[in-house]
Amino acid sequence: MSLTLLDFYKAIEDTSARMLAAAHMADWDEVVRLEGACAVLIEQLRERGNGIDLSAEERAEKHRIMMTILRHDAQIRHLAEPFIEELGQQLGQTAPSQLH
Top-level CATH class of 5-98? Predict the structure, then answer.
């Protein structure tokens, strides 16, 4: 079975949903593990996506998926802020906003 570009986008979307679920449970080890899985999928997408044109319908689906991934990412970041702040305090660092 050959995977299409949209299959990769859907796999990334699914993984980001699982990351969000793990973040809701404050399972940061799982979030990091899934983030690594996303990175692998993104790299595979880049390797296979060069020069491939999507139809208008496929572009619309890609857009929907990307918007969902961005929403998941924003929610994960929001859930992670207290954890990052606490970690920074434990390490004797300043507020996370000053780390960026």
Answer: mainly alpha
Nearest Cα residue to 76 out of 32, 11, 12: 32
Round the average pLDDT of the chain to a whole number and report it.
89
List of residues 6+ apart from 34 with CB closer than 8 A: 15, 16, 18, 19, 22
Q: Report the C-alpha gap between 14 and 22 in whole angstroms.
A: 12
pLDDT at residue 89 tops 90: no
Give mean pLDDT, residues 65-80.
96
Give the span between the Cα atoms of 58 and 78, in whole angstroms.
Answer: 30
Residue 39's Cβ-side half-sphere holds a number of Cα atoms within 13 Å equal to 6
Spatial distance between the Cα atoms of 40 and 50, rounded to a whole number of angstroms: 16
| Residue 59 or 90, more confident | 59
**Which residue, among 26, 25, 21, has the nearest Cα to 72 in the 3D structure?**
21
Q: Nearest CA to 25 among 74, 71, 83?
A: 83
